[in-house]
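Here we describe the complex-level prediction in full. Unlike the single-chain runs in Section 2.1, the two entities below were treated as one system.
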Amino acid sequence: MNTSMNYSKAEDWYIEEEKFDSSWLGKCEAIMCLGNGYLGLRSATEEEYLNEKRGYFVAGTFNKFDDREVTELPNIADIINLQMIINGCCFTLDKGTIKKYSRKLNLRTGELSRCIVWISPKGDELAIEFYRVVSMADLHLIAQKVIITPINSNISLKIISGINGRITNSGSQHLSDGDKRLYEQKYMQLVQTTGESQIDFVHNTSLSFMIDNETCELESRIIIERRKIYMEYEMDVPQGIPLVIQKISNVYTSREPDNADIGLKKLQEKSLSLLKNAVAHGYDRIAYDSATEWGKKVWDKTPIKITAEDEFDQLSIRFAQYHLAIMVPSHDNRMSIGAKGLSGEGYKGHTFWDTDIFVLPYFIFTDPQLAKQLEQYRYLSLNGARAKALSNGFSGAQFPWESAWLDDGEVTPVWGAADIITGEPTKIWSGFIEQHITSDVSYGIWQYYKVTDDQKFMDQYGYEVIFDTANFWVSRLEFSEEDGLYHINNVVGPDEYKEHADDNAYTNYMAYWNIKKAMEYYQYLKEERTSIFNKLLNSLDLDASYEMWVDRADKIYLPVPREEDLVIPQDKYYLTYKEIDLTNYKSQTQVDTIFLDYNIEQINHIQVSKQADIMMLFLCLEDMFSYEVKKANWDYYEPRTLHDSSLSLSSHCILANDLGDYDKAYDLFRKAAGIDLGTNMKSSDSGIHAASIGGIWQCIVYGFGGVRMINGKLRIEPKLPKTWSDLEFPIIWHGQKLIIKINKNRLQIENITKEAEVEVTIYGKSYHIDDRLEVDLPEGCQL
Amino acid sequence: MNTSMNYSKAEDWYIEEEKFDSSWLGKCEAIMCLGNGYLGLRSATEEEYLNEKRGYFVAGTFNKFDDREVTELPNIADIINLQMIINGCCFTLDKGTIKKYSRKLNLRTGELSRCIVWISPKGDELAIEFYRVVSMADLHLIAQKVIITPINSNISLKIISGINGRITNSGSQHLSDGDKRLYEQKYMQLVQTTGESQIDFVHNTSLSFMIDNETCELESRIIIERRKIYMEYEMDVPQGIPLVIQKISNVYTSREPDNADIGLKKLQEKSLSLLKNAVAHGYDRIAYDSATEWGKKVWDKTPIKITAEDEFDQLSIRFAQYHLAIMVPSHDNRMSIGAKGLSGEGYKGHTFWDTDIFVLPYFIFTDPQLAKQLEQYRYLSLNGARAKALSNGFSGAQFPWESAWLDDGEVTPVWGAADIITGEPTKIWSGFIEQHITSDVSYGIWQYYKVTDDQKFMDQYGYEVIFDTANFWVSRLEFSEEDGLYHINNVVGPDEYKEHADDNAYTNYMAYWNIKKAMEYYQYLKEERTSIFNKLLNSLDLDASYEMWVDRADKIYLPVPREEDLVIPQDKYYLTYKEIDLTNYKSQTQVDTIFLDYNIEQINHIQVSKQADIMMLFLCLEDMFSYEVKKANWDYYEPRTLHDSSLSLSSHCILANDLGDYDKAYDLFRKAAGIDLGTNMKSSDSGIHAASIGGIWQCIVYGFGGVRMINGKLRIEPKLPKTWSDLEFPIIWHGQKLIIKINKNRLQIENITKEAEVEVTIYGKSYHIDDRLEVDLPEGCQL
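The structure predicted for the assembly as a whole is:
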């Protein structure tokens, strides 16, 4: 464990690493990742280390290495490398002496910096500063600046830098060794093309140098090797004089609609010419433009203020908003958010229910346009979902557990890590039977609709998805002669430690909800929106569908609370499984430690849950269950839940708050924020946890802020943690931007759009806000 | 430059590295490479370093990454890794303190060892010994032993070791992520399959531990990740007690005829069961069996003794014989020797004329059975050669410049390094127009035939190759109305600094020789071997061919010495090109430095040669040219030759000796041996230089030993370097093994086979040896 990570600076816009240890590179590479939704760039260092994991991804550029693998986001050529050789000594923090060290990510500007004073093994002392941005203003642009100042002597400096196309996805190479060119002795270009999907990438980069504020031309040499193009520069830098190196790079691909048909040659020319413009602007201007865009897009638009004893809490929401901004492909509705954003190879860039249930609410409530695009992605994936249903013998649309390019359908890998007992790889069942994703997608669309009131979206896209997912569910149901009811057997519910569950409560209830919602909208359209109704009537054979829905919806088996203790069985057999002492596995700072003692086959038959399962049901359909039922189930299941998934802590935090266990709620919030920002130095190696990061916002706004859309209505019932004095955040409800301010005993809501009145329920009372509302919090909710 | 390489130990069987520097890893990885002709294993260390280049190849398992690349030998999964974590500190020589260090390759036994005393950054002092062999007795087997002894404290030791399938060929991944299995909590298995050629590899490995001479079972944990299977072991090792770790591994592929049809599952079972046997034997037994086989196969069979002032000379021939033994695929005649053997990715495992002209003579004279297999490879490649001729509009068989699997035909890459002027990649013309390879193949066959007298080989294979290559040449010739002669325009000769040469002397003479040889054998077969003649008559349309040969052979333009200075123009325009001062490029210890100032287009038009060109002609067809002509051309061309190819120094050494410049000859021999064994720490990074290594033997036996096959006759005219007192080596001539001993003034030849009389010419006099011959050397040849 490394304690050098520092999040508690007075200026709470920074994540800082105060001590370098090359054993723990993955952490900062991921949590300090740069990006803009188009591209993601792990914050690997300019110099190389043995255990680094360079990562650079462009959203939506999926490729399949071979038929044994599933499609994934290719890890493209490294362009940030920059090797410095000082009097023959290669700069590396693994050798020599580090006199001063700080690495920081400025969340406000998106700038990464490192300030180092280093003494080389030969005794040369140098001050080296590194700066880097991925532009939020020009999605294709990466800019780097390095300032190197010899402190105790003149130095002879050699710089080697360029583009390295040898990077792989942990050994799988998605990209060809394409054209490598040097233009005008200055601009390097490397082309890569994916093997299966045939997407072209054009990388351009150029270095320039300033000494004593004067641009200078260095002696240089081009090196072209297999998959590599590099320039080598040499110069003498006098003692005390800073040399400023700028490296400006860009990437364009044929995936972008603008580039899809222009051909590779034109793409090479276009991207090169755009690089030349960027080089003319230089690092400082690029960084300034990017920071300005960050303000417009995130910080000025959705400022969230937490006044708390520990500034970590304020930082954690900024950290979350930063990552939510860099993970979302706001430029293209044909792609969605990966479970690791664009910050690592983990989960292959695939989209899970994490997006619909954990991440989407942030965008629904703060950036409806972006939320709409994410829902359009699901609509555009309908063909793949229909194909998946068909291939499984079902009707309608069955959304893939893991989703990549639109028509790809299911892309979940089939094999996972080793079974500790048999030594064989374990089968990943999610792609086959983790079926709740289909109602999660519908639920996300419904939530978007209800919060934004975007009727046009529903007319164009939304109803079709809700109808056709209902069609899947009625075809999926299994009739039992025994009880005359419909069951859903052999599924994985949210809790992935139960692999072949029958009648998983979450799955059954959500399927029921999905069909009921379809029935409701069928009636509504038929009665009030004839033209839309007629359009869908034909394409989806709506009348026949409706008959099936009506016939089956109320015959779905919905597990009810046991009489004796109000516990709802998570699935048919869960409550019959043996119980073991989970202390060791729950107290660990590591996840998955139970696998050191049991294999999945055994865990399947123990009363232990990986993550929120019933709890998710209470959150999604909260008005269907009473406080008593929720409390009883919390008391039963939470002690049996290891939180081995990053989808667990934030949901539990919200529920703990709902149920009145405020200290536990705050504790869970801190733990949730700690999944990436915490001291476990290995937890983020393969990328940040998008769902957990969406969950941080949910803890604050859904949890402590008490904001919820319940059955189409806005409800706000705040309850701040003891250590917070103020919380302020905006939400957008039906197109009206509301600024919500909460302090120890009052709630203030200001409608700054003022175009329409907003209805809100606060502790059971309904209010209408057209301008501003202030109410006292009930006593138990005051601090 | 690193001067820690030590070759001059009293015991001249070792190459030793006395100082470790992680900047120069490639050198020892290549020159200390282990292997057995079936597999080649670069001597990367157990622990990992940033600039290492792990390499592990199985002969003949070619695969093409994609259609932009040519086929190459895949760099397969790393199996020698073994990470040790001592009280939390990862063992690496880049940190901590090295108190003692020695890495040695024992050429006699093929065992690699490292003996280190190391103090970890935490102050733990350890003695660590590493031993490794690739078995010469069981071609599939690799054995490692590590002995770790804590010197100043008890230690807690963690060992992580397994199979890593993330290795690529400089970024290109040829292999799938296949099955990973752990059997009996002990045996790890990883399967890989090549993408295009669909060759299966099965890797097995197992670790075992002994402490205080007792086998012990350690606590272990299996780790399966993408392309990786590992075990992690933990134990406490008391101060002063050595822990012995053994790691035994094997590899089998579906390329082996035995395994081609049994299916992957059977191959997995078979290889696993063979590994279990090997594990039962243990490291010491495996190493002993391998060393025994080394004796039988190489050292006892072909002992070469040099008594010289500098033991480097003895070591250099042992080094050469060692590498010749590990590069030759003696198990399978469907594969040949790559330009880097199996010691690196360089030249992609492809076979060039290097094999036929530079390497083959060693095997022809010392192991005719192996030489025959190499010639059979050329015969089996005839279809590819015919296809190449046909696709270029020619008749007969045109051998590919670079050759891989039998029917692949031409596999030379089309693009090379960057042009320093235009920044564009340069086109590699060799595959298109470096055509002399076709007569080189015929020449190799003829040489094999004349030295071994293997008539059966000629009947079955040899004549067909010589006839069909002659057919290529007659179709390739270009008639000139101007002089009524046939020319060969637009070729690359041996000298690759002249890319579009007309009438390259070597090419024209060797084509002429090839056709003339075909004519001679046509006559011979027609007159004396009717059945063979009739067989080939039909298949090759011999009569029509013969007519063409007769019509054209004597009308081929053969450049003759200029009257004024006896210089033969290397090609039509060479002597007209401008001359520049080459001092800087000739005195460099680096090759290719001329490219820092000129691009290939410019070098094409300068009187500068990369390598032996006319000199190769004098060596191959030495009885066609007088001493005066040779001397005149040496004096003209050698100063214009940069020796930027490893195919140059040894040929020049032999000629210098022939021409009487003995000091120069010895100097060139040392330089030739220094190509791999010298102090240039980067020269062998991508693999050893097979041609240069064949050349070391040629310098000694052809050069100083004066052995030559001239027009079918054995000639021996020794001339030892001043610093040598004795030279002793065996050759096999017409099936008779001759032991040749040369000292300051006498030559002794003993026929130890004694089955037939051998005729030999020594300084113009002919002798017949049935037992033993001793003659005084002429005065000028005595020391």
